[in-house]
Specification:
With 714 residues, the chain is mostly helical. The protein has 5 domains: 16-60 and 72-185, no CATH class; 191-315, no CATH class; 320-465, Tetracycline Repressor, domain 2, CATH 1.10.357.50; 482-668, Tetracycline Repressor, domain 2; 672-713. The chain has 28 helices and 4 strands. The longest helix is centred in the middle third of the chain and has 35 residues, at 317-351.
């Protein structure tokens, strides 16, 4: 017989497992050997609580009613303990406990010494049982665990639940019954504490036991990887093997998930509070925001059993913010340097006279491709590492700064006299279009304001390039614009000059080496500007249509010119067919004679083009000499009344490009201009003799001309 350690009369704890483990194993082995021979010193125990045991005269009731092929072998407590049948061993202990403590002390016929011995033996057996229980629980994650270990674990968990029920029964004992000093045993609480210790040890040993991190460059990255892999592997084992051993109400999967989350979080917090380089900082954030939430908590086999939202973040905001600031600061500096170098390289090519690359018969620039290939992957990486679109938007602000520098550089280059200027601008129109597509993508992490600013910069730069190509065309067409909608021109009824159409058709050849989509956009812009010039000449107040016949003739001429211009631009590639409707609606206003119908048509025109102003309407009505002042006022008032609802209507902006003089200047007619010119001549004649030398006179004249210009505009 092996002598047990001198244990005081107290409940065995988890710490006793290490002290008693070796001795307990030896006791169990010797007990198993003795079970084959004669059994000595067996205590005779009376079982008064038959309702609890479910027996009658020591025989199983079910056995009396159901015929069995072989009688059930009833093992002793020591045999159940040695075979890890802890549920049966627990029931035996509970029956003995009920037998010893289930009678009032004044009714117990046994001697006091015998009772004390029985209680001492029961306490020692409980301590042996609890050591064996913790040993089984501790072996949960052993690599060689099999079906037998699962049965032992299931039996251990069942015994814990039995002990919990026994604790509840002793909370309100019957009168006169003495509560055992080891009650309540709180096995479930001790079990949870043991699980916490098991998890902490496994997290600590993961850095030594887990393989597969050889390709990682730093020691911290290897440690974090190994811990994360252990968390994933252990939780998978819990779901696949351990979960079936526990009752559903214990929710053991989420218990383990919480314990591993807390242990992993503590370890990462230790790493975060040290001085980290950018690589380690990025890898730590990657596990916190991507790998752990996605590959662990939302793993295909785990997400059905684990509440992925309950554990929360691995690091608090207080620990995360310094890491995020460090990562973003480094990322901003890196992006800024990349973009600056890309622009500097491109500028050198412009200035050195290198012609852009010609692919598929049109010029291209690679600056947009280079920048997007740098920025786009970094944007995706930042979103993955930080796990927050708003935080990731911080890096994209560098693109706005780059685009401003790019715009300034290209505008400065276009002002110089370079042989390659046109080719460079054509190539950069392609890059501008690529930038716009990239910025406009909804999945790209841009702040709304940053996106708006970038698109505005690109639109201004595109318009600058368009102006470089289109301004010479308008300058060439200026002499033909001046003929439109004058009295001699209208009397000749020749329509839009043939020379104007010829110039437009000839200039298209210059854009043959422009990318088709950019060419289409450029010619569409030219279409809009030419039509705006045409309408502006119509509203110039150079003539009046005095009767219905003249107004119908003007409306027909307006429609014919619109068809000619539309046919020309459509053949060149413009898709702005909506411009035809603008001219047709203007022609309809000129054609109509009924003031009510004119009023309705004006409101319809304003609904289609919200930038139609009161000055445009008055200049258009100025052509209709047969309209009275009161009729014009009513039409204008109708437009003003409907302005609030019209501004919210979607439509094409057109009339903003065809500005007309203020209506007050138009109503005063040539009289205002007469007085302005007379005042200018009188002023100049008075100061001519007083100012010397001539340079002062020239300066003063220039100042006066500027003042006169402001007066005319106002």
């Amino acid at each position: 017989m092996v002598k047990l350690p001198n244990l005081t009369r107290r409940r065995a704890t988890i710490e006793d497992a290490e002290k008693v483990g070796a001795v307990c194993s030896q006791v169990v082995e010797e007990t198993a050997k003795d079970s084959h021979g004669p059994r000595k010193d067996k205590h005779k125990i009376k079982f008064p609580f038959k309702r609890i045991l479910g027996t009658k005269d020591g025989a199983n009731t079910a056995a009396n009613t159901v015929s069995q092929p072989a009688p059930e072998v009833i093992l002793s407590f020591e045999e159940n303990l040695s075979q890890n049948q802890l549920a049966k061993a627990s029931r035996q202990l509970i029956m003995r406990e009920d037998a010893i403590f289930g009678q009032r002390t004044d009714q117990n016929s046994a001697g006091e010494d015998e009772i004390v011995k029985e209680r001492d033996q029961l306490q020692r057996d409980y301590e042996m049982f609890q050591v064996r229980l913790w040993m089984v629980i501790h072996a949960t994650f052993q690599d060689k665990s099999g079906e037998g270990d699962s049965e032992a674990l299931h039996s251990a968990v069942t015994s814990i639940m039995q002990e919990e029920e026994q604790d509840k029964r002793w909370l309100e004992p019957a009168e006169g019954l003495q509560v055992p000093e080891w009650r309540p045993r709180k096995c479930l609480m001790e079990h949870n504490l043991l699980l916490q210790k098991i998890v902490n040890v496994r997290i600590k040993k993961a850095e030594e036991e887990v393989n597969g991190a050889d390709n990682l460059s730093t020691n911290l990255m290897k440690q974090v990887f190994k811990i994360g892999k252990r968390v994933q592997a252990d939780l998978l084992k819990v779901v696949n093997n351990v979960k079936q051993c526990y009752p559903e109400d214990l929710d053991v999967c989420n218990v383990y998930a919480r314990l591993y989350h807390e242990a992993f979080s503590r370890r990462l917090r230790e790493f975060a509070q040290t001085s980290l380089d950018v690589k380690d900082c990025s890898y730590l954030l990657l596990w916190v925001n991507s790998y752990y939430p996605t590959d662990v908590l939302k793993h295909e086999e785990l997400k059905k059993h684990i509440d992925s939202e309950s554990p929360g973040a691995l690091l608090s905001d207080e620990d995360l913010k310094p890491l995020e600031d460090q990562y973003l600061s480094h990322g901003e500096a890196k992006v800024r340097d990349w973009l600056a170098n890309a622009l500097k390289t491109e500028q050198k090519r412009w200035i050195s006279g290198v012609w852009p690359e010609l692919i598929d018969d049109y010029y291209i620039s690679l600056i947009a491709v280079d920048v997007i290939e740098l920025v786009a992957p970094l944007a995706e990486e930042t979103l993955t590492i930080l796990g927050d679109r708003v935080k990731a938007q911080r890096l994209q602000c560098q693109l706005e700064t780059f685009l401003m520098s790019y715009k300034k550089a290209l505008e400065e280059f276009s002002k110089g006299h370079h042989e390659t200027t046109k080719a460079v601008l054509k190539a950069n129109l392609v890059s501008i279009e690529q930038f716009r597509e990239f910025v406009d993508k909804s999945e790209t992490p841009f702040k709304d304001q940053t996106r708006t600013n970038c698109l505005s910069i690109l639109a201004d730069l595109r318009d600058h390039c368009y102006s470089y190509f289109l301004c010479p065309i308008h300058k060439e067409l200026k002499v033909h614009y001046r003929k439109l909608w004058t009295t001699p021109w209208f009397a000749a009824k020749q329509g839009v000059p043939v020379e104007l159409l010829g110039i437009l058709g000839g200039d298209v050849y210059e854009f043959r080496d422009l990318k088709p989509v950019c060419k289409e956009d450029l010619l569409g812009q030219l279409h809009i500007e030419v039509m705006a010039k045409y309408v502006k000449r119509l509203l110039k107040r150079k003539m009046k249509l005095r009767d219905r016949e003249q107004q119908e003739a003007a409306a027909n001429l307006l429609c014919e010119d619109s068809k000619k211009l539309s046919a020309l631009f459509t053949s060149m590639g413009s898709r702005n067919s909506w411009l035809d409707n603008v001219v047709f609606q203007l022609a309809e206003v000129i054609r109509l004679q009924d003031p009510g119908a004119i009023q309705l048509e004006v409101v319809t025109l304003a609904r289609a083009h919200p930038d139609l102003s009161e000055n445009h309407v008055l200049a258009l009505l100025y052509l209709k000499a047969n309209l009275s002042t009161s009729e014009v006022r009513r039409i204008r008032e109708s437009l003003t009344e409907n302005r609030g609802t019209l501004e919210s209507c979607p439509g094409h902006a057109f009339f903003a490009k065809a500005l007309v003089l203020d209506s007050s200047f138009g109503r005063c007619g040539g009289q205002t201009l007469f007085y302005v010119n007379r005042w200018r001549k009188e002023t100049l004649s008075r100061i001519t003799a007083a100012l010397h030398p001539p340079c002062c006179l020239n300066f003063y004249i220039s100042m006066q001309m500027c003042s006169l210009y402001k007066i005319v505009v106002k």
